[in-house]
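Sequence only, no structure available. Ideas?
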Amino acid sequence: MKFYANKKYNTIAIYAIIVIAISMLMVIAIFKFSAISAIVKKVLGILTPVFWGMALAFLLNPLMNTVEKSLKKYVIKKPHPKLLRGISVASTAIFFVAVLCGLLYIVIPAFADSISSMTENAKLIYNKLYDWTERFLSDNPKLESIAKEKLDNFTSDINSLIDKVQPMVDDLLSGAMSFVGVVMDFALGFIVSIYILVSKETLQAQFKKLFIATFKRSTCNKVFRLATMCCKTFGNFLTGKIIDSLIIGIMCFFGCWILNIPYYVLIAVIVGITNVIPYFGPFIGAIPCAALVLFVEPSKCIVFVIFIFILQQFDGNILGPKILGGVTGLPTFWVLVALFVGGGLFQAIGLLLAVPTCSVVYELIKESTRNKLRKKNLPTETKDYISDISRIYATTEKSELPTADELESMIIPSADDVNEVNLDV
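Reply:
I predicted one. Tokens follow.
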């Protein structure tokens, strides 16, 4: 029996095989989810140093580019490309390690002293809270008894920790091993970042080559353009925000030190770290710090709040715009929405990356909307849709669009129309 090839049925058969294969993979993924997730988690754990390296290379790349341009302009007039890149990467790596070690050398001992001092003063803080409870809730015995009960429970919980020290030893050792693992991943990631910085053009060319060979030209152009937009937005935002937070942390450190605020190192670290989060960061850091100062030295709390307010105003109106500029281009409303969604879904990392992510999505949607409006011969500016002109455009055929004079008369009323307006509201 002789078989004849049929292109139509061959295509149908191929699609059917693909659908069946995908369905089988989905069924396997559902019933073997725990095993697959364990494998994925293990693979991601193995690749953690690579992710660290990519993140560090992304953050150090602007600094390396600055060093490279400065060397080329002022030091080495006609450099060899590999020599110039090697000197730039080495200088950047040495500077990064020096800054990191310097900060750790200064911050960690003072931070540990602050925590130790705060632990020693825990009894004093408890007594002050107890006295305040009696003073302010004396007129309401029911609330006073509830507050005292909560304070007594908290104290008993603190005292019971002594009996739980021995069972917690294993967890403490496990946490120490986990910390050592994080440090090792960071160190390996730093080495990976050096290799990425040295050969970033080659790696970029390899990815471009792979995309161009796999996808059509229009898809490649869209992907490359999106990648460029993401790199620019994320790079400028993260780099600027880290520099801004570092400056604010240092200013907070010296300001609290001069004003003799207690636990000034701990407060400066908290304020500097939380300042990375847009809008809500200053409040997240300032509120617990103000409560801590209030418990220890109530007379300094007002001074601290005023100082933090001035510092945040300086950051929001002068330092922040100077460093970040118009990196995101997002209206305030969408920044708040991005922070709510990002923080709710991904906690701290979501708060950090929500704004640049939303900025990229916002720009893509804005550009797509403008292109569609241009194809319909409609205005692209938002202000043109504030009046009833949006309804007119929506109900008017393209061939019957009003002229410029008619549009002006629709938007700007005549003097007679103005006189006839009823002002009784």
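Residues 11-45 form one domain.
Hope that gets you unstuck.
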